[in-house]
Amino acid sequence: MNRLAVFFGSDFLYRFRTDPVAVGATVVLGLFVLAAVFAPWLSGMNPHDPAQIDIMNSEIPPVWQDGGAPAFPFGTDAQGRDLLSAILYGLRISITIGIFAVMVQMTLGIVIGLVSGYLGGKVDAFFMRLADIQLSMSTLMLAIVALAVFQAAFGAELFADMAIIMLILVIGIAEWPQYARTIRASVLAERKKEYVEAARVIGLSAPVIMVRHILPNTLSPLLVISTVQVANAIISEAALSFLGLGMPVTKPSLGSLISAGFEYIFSGSWWITTIPAIVLIVLILSINLLGDWLRDVLNPRLYKG
Question: Which of 46, 96, 160, 186 is the most exposed place for a label (fewest CB within 10 A)?
Answer without folding.
Answer: 160
